[in-house]
Specification:
Pfam families: nSTAND1, Pkinase. The chain has about 475 residues and is an alpha+beta fold. It is built from 15 helices and twelve strands. The chain folds into two domains: about 240 residues, Orthogonal Bundle (Transferase(Phosphotransferase), domain 1); about 110 residues, no CATH class. It starts with 13 loop residues before the first strand and ends with a helix.
Length: about 475
């Protein structure tokens, strides 16, 4: 079962150099699509609602935050690859993480899996905060349980939150995961992400939102006044979750402190490949950050300011931070869940392999009927009628190739990018395709000219007959 759903009537099929293949999800802030670049790389394209291009200040802020997001270390996060906030559909492109979100995983987590998930999310927050990025919208929907463990997505495009209680931006968020200071108009910084970490870990253990209620006002009351039941968590995780969910932002630990404590748990299974990293028992001392006088601070303060989009104050990423992030990622990589999220190219190759020998021989010619070469030389899908013999080949490819009303067939717009075998056929037949498409464009002109010539000849013959 693929995670992405088919594109709808109002969905774009292309944004910049990316072909879109399906919807991954939609919310108040925008829609996320599965896409492919010209080289066939699978990506996630987040399309924002609104028009930042019309607001220079907003566009500049989003640009700064996207640039900061590109600097996030690739541990337990989906790397930001590209962004364009100037067009009618502003978007941000990130690495595609195959797998369901934590909310869609269809299970609750316990024992080593829960600890691994908590460690992976703390690792991602540590990487974000080290790069000067605040997520602002960490929820179970933005944690993907991928093949190599949980990964955090969705950062880099969240609107700012100041006095959010009176701000329309609040409607773009999941209120059960917002920290108390969001509702009281306080500063929204790294501690808000840590609060969300606690709520996400509790969701993973229970399958329920910790502060869920029937109305926004009730959710606010729960977040501001009530402490959730932490009994479903293992004893080792309860103190960390309790500290993360503190009502006072100043009382919450930094993400890096959470990660250190998680890695130091006595019942954590041995990590499989720490040969390139310092031993875990040495990490606390290695991570001691020099204070103003040069004396270590004990590693209990995250370096860098809290301002969104501001680079970490430590300059180039320190080897000690990289060692900690690597250790956290390796701990999180043990977490596995059922994942059936193949790329379009994998589906197409499986369908091709299932064809009989004769159908395989016909397949290149059949598929090339459904592809055109645009003026810039890039392959694009086109709708055409095909003979009955070709229909039997196309039927084997399911939703990748669909019959349109009126008897025409069409490819998924992304398939020429996503399927390497089809790209090879296109390259091998490019000269013939270009000649065919040019002839197809010239044919109406030739027919029109021919019709004019025939009419002229007929008229001349009539005039000549009358003269005689």
């Amino acid at each position: 079962m693929r995670v992405a759903r088919e594109l709808g009537a109002g969905d774009p099929w292309r944004l910049g150099g990316y072909r879109l293949a399906g919807r991954l999800g939609a919310g108040a802030r925008g829609t996320v699509y599965e896409g492919y670049d010209a080289g066939g790389r699978r990506v996630a394209v987040s399309v924002m609602h609104g028009r930042p291009a019309a607001d220079p200040e907003l566009r500049a802020r989003l640009g700064r935050e996207a640039e900061a997001a590109r600097r996030v270390a690739p541990f337990c996060t989906a790397s930001v690859l590209d962004a364009d906030f100037d067009g009618p559909r502003p978007y941000l492109v990130s690495e595609y993480v195959a797998g369901p979100s934590l909310r869609r995983a269809g299970r609750v987590f316990g024992g080593d899996d829960l600890r691994g998930l908590a460690t992976a999310v703390a690792t991602a927050l540590t990487a974000l905060h080290d790069a000067g990025v605040i997520h602002r919208d960490l929820t179970p929907d933005n944690v993907i349980v991928g093949r190599d463990g949980p990964r955090v997505t969705g950062f880099g495009v969240a609107p700012g939150l100041g006095s959010a209680l009176a701000s329309p931006a609040l409607k773009s968020y999941a209120p059960s995961y917002l920290a108390p200071e969001v509702f009281t108009g306080g500063r929204v910084g790294r501690p808000a992400d840590v609060f969300a970490w606690g709520a996400v870990v509790l969701y993973a253990a229970t399958g329920k939102d910790a502060f869920a209620a029937g109305s926004l006002g009730a959710v606010m009351h729960h977040v501001l006044s009530l402490d959730p039941d932490l009994d479903p968590l293992p004893r080792s995780l309860r103190p960390l979750a309790r500290a993360a969910l503190a009502k006072d932002a100043a009382a919450r630990p930094a993400a890096r402190d959470l990660l250190l404590d998680l890695l130091a748990l006595p019942d954590l299974p041995a990590l499989p490949s720490l040969s390139a990293s310092p031993p875990l028992q040495a990490l606390p001392s290695l991570l001691a950050v020099p204070g103003p006088s040069g004396a270590p601070t004990g590693g209990r303060t995250c370096p860098g300011p809290d301002a969104p989009g501001t680079p970490a104050a430590t300059g180039p990423r320190e080897p000690e931070i990289v060692a900690l992030l690597r250790a956290g990622a390796e701990a999180g990589a043990r977490v596995r869940t059922a994942c059936d999220d193949p790329a379009l190219g994998d589906l197409a190759e499986a369908a091709y392999a299932a064809l009989g020998p004769e159908a395989r021989e016909r397949a290149p010619a059949v598929f090339l009927r459904l592809v055109a070469v645009a003026a810039g030389g890039e392959p694009v899908a086109r709708e055409v009628r095909v003979p009955p013999a070709a229909e039997s080949v196309l039927d084997a490819f399911g939703g990748l190739v669909v019959r349109r009303p009126g008897g025409t067939w069409a490819l998924s717009p992304a398939l020429p990018y996503a399927w390497p075998r089809l790209r090879g056929w296109i390259e091998a037949g490019r000269v013939r395709l270009v000649a065919r498409d040019r002839f197809a464009r010239l044919l109406p002109v030739l027919l029109a000219v021919s019709a004019v010539l025939v009419m002229a000849l007929v008229a001349a013959a009539i005039v000549a007959g009358r003269t005689v």
